Amino acid sequence: MADLVIDQAVPVREGETLDRERLETYLDEHLENQDGSLLIEQFPSGFSNLTYLLTIGDEQLVLRKPPFGNEVKSAHDMSREYRVLSSLWRVYPPAPRPLLFCDDPSIIGDHFYVMERRHGVVLRGPAAPDLLQNDEQMVRRLCESFIDNLATLHTLDYKAAGLGELGRPEGYVERQVTGWARRYDNARTDDHPEMEELSAWLLANQPDDCGPALIHNDYKYDNLMLDAQDMTRIVAVLDWEMATIGDPLMDLGTTLAYWIQPSDPEELHFRAFGPTMLPGSMSRDELVSRYFEKTGLATDRLHFYCGYGLFKLAVIIQQIYARYVRGHTQDPRFADLSTTVEHLARRGVQVIHDDNLP
Fold first, then answer.
1. What are the chain's domains?
2. 2 falls in which pLDDT band (50, 70, 90)?
3. Which of 149, 167, 301, 306 has the highest CB neighbour number within 10 Å of its CB?
């Protein structure tokens, strides 16, 4: 069991330090009421964009930047994330308020943005706080909040929120499938025949777009922040770099790929992106049913969306592993990610050939 811990920052990892003096000068010039010297710490979890805690006197802010050695600019677009949050925080309470965007790479080596800090609990990995371990009803309510919040996002009037020009919803499914297949080719290191089979099947079996919505594209437990006093209340949704206007069922498929349940292959259990296997947790089937009830959507091609989600997740992990193999990061967490790609691809092949989902 795990204790209830508010998300905490730690000293910055080796190789991921920022130029404190240049950043402090820049913040002094562009943010109001800055009083005190700058302390930089890092939130240690996460596998993609880097997140830092900035403490200036009594104020705390959060800085987001792409990973060092990033070769996939479209997946780490700080200006997109900043633009989304600049409109979204006004109409969608879980979205943090952004404060500053910097497109000058001379400050810390890349584009970045700064936003408000929110406080809460982030559920990472299969372990869970004791409070959740011992309360199946609370776990159930958390699952309901989790999927209801995704449905709320997908039914938001994004045009009224000022996000109508964010993406190109026409042809979204085709662009995503071909795009992730291309990204896998670019990040390839080891041979994974199941990835080849999964990619080919997705390219040949695309459904029509179901209609546009504002989608997060990486919605999972460890991108949520929960109220420490009420673990069923979501106080923040994080990591908006891949948000766009697109097919909400593709977003749902990504979320389902992250949702591991006890019946899944054991090798996927320890890689869970949150405690989704707790007693009281909803199954993927229950999540889908509630989501369809809340949104009014439906599909008989769920195996496509689930297969796509697993393929996309495998490609994201392959991109991270490729950065490690190519020497762009020394983070030891990345050393065995190739096996995770293999497990996800194998599961994806099983899914696309199974109409009895999820």
1. 20-116 (3.30.200.20), 130-352 (3.90.1200.10)
2. very low
3. 306
